[in-house]
Amino acid sequence: MSTAARTQSPAAEAWSLLQTLMFDVQRPRFITLCSEFDVTPPQLMTLRRLDADTPVPTSEVARWLTCDASNVTGIVDRLEARGLVERRPDPGDRRVKMLALTDEGVALRDEIVRRLAMPPEPLAALPRADQRALRDILRLAVDRG
Amino acid sequence: MSTAARTQSPAAEAWSLLQTLMFDVQRPRFITLCSEFDVTPPQLMTLRRLDADTPVPTSEVARWLTCDASNVTGIVDRLEARGLVERRPDPGDRRVKMLALTDEGVALRDEIVRRLAMPPEPLAALPRADQRALRDILRLAVDRG
DNA sequence: TATTGTTATACTCTATAACTATA
DNA sequence: TATAGTTATAGAGTATAACAATA
To answer: Quick check: B47 and B108 in contact, CB under 8 A?
Structure first.
């Protein structure tokens, strides 16, 4: 352990460790998953946000992707061409396009979500008690945010 | 809490919460940081990997980015044009280009790393005892991997 | 007038394949 | 022959600006 780590606040060191987990473990995993399912990262992120039952406006997907709305047009065009997503009118505002998954889109998203949900080695290898403690602390953190 | 969450293993639920933290909190933060420092995400990732003292071959950066080596050429071209990175010969193998940060590159990387290291609200707001417990568990997980 | 989504444009990232220099 | 890095190419993501339809 470095001197810097010892003098950091516990939250800072925890965050640094989380970033290691995300950059070194999750990022390669995510990229591999994308190519396995033949979707690009923003396409996968879009599928994760959408649903069949509760359509969301294009602007919401732009917010979710943290990108300009003009980019969503092309991303959705390609997902729509593959039959995974559909554009629906918004009865209340004719400017708005509502986005929703098709049945095929739901199937693909479910499979992707299932794969993303599998805990990586470093977490799965933890003693059960530590897994529970980790879960409880993260629940506390996320529920507040 | 969902029924699914209750029936998952603790590691699976912890991982799901971590992903929430990463997608909802870290990703927008990362993208904002990139535009603030006028670098693209792969450029920022490259700066994070490099150093002034211990040059690494181009191939190592490709591994780090999880992308083909041909892409690194352009990414490094642009960082080099800004005076942040330099290519050095490898005395042992004249095919290899070693990559290292310039002084300016070190300064920028340090500032970026400092900003990335700031724990986000959900973590910073945790009680001190939970921060320490989180840190200890993550140390255990990461040290094994 | 303001907003939603699209189009046009220029730049960057990406994988693949072909190439050069070196091993 | 094999490998490291580059170049060429085509497809995708990105921000910005301008536009049409609608509010």
So the answer is: yes
State mean pLDDT over B59-79.
98
The rounded mean pLDDT for chain A is: 93
**Fold for the domain defined by A10-144:** Arc Repressor Mutant, subunit A (1.10.10)
Q: What is the pLDDT of residues B123-132, one digit of tens each?
A: 999 999 999 9
- What confidence score (pLDDT) does residue B145 get? 58
Nucleotide at minimal C1' distance from the B40 CA: C12
Strand D within 7 A of B72 CB? yes
Residues B47/B99, Cβ–Cβ less than 8 Å: no
In this prediction, residue A3 has a pLDDT band, given cuts at 50, 70 and 90, of very low
B88: number of Cβ within 10 Å: 11
Domains of chain B, by residue range, sit at 10-144
Residues with CB under 7 A from strand C: A 31, 35, 57-59, 69-70, 72-74, 76-77, 87, 93, 95-98; B 40-43, 65-68, 70-71, 74-75, 78, 93-95
Q: Is the CB of A33 under 7 A from strand D?
A: no
Q: How far is A140 from chain B (nearest CA, A)?
A: 8
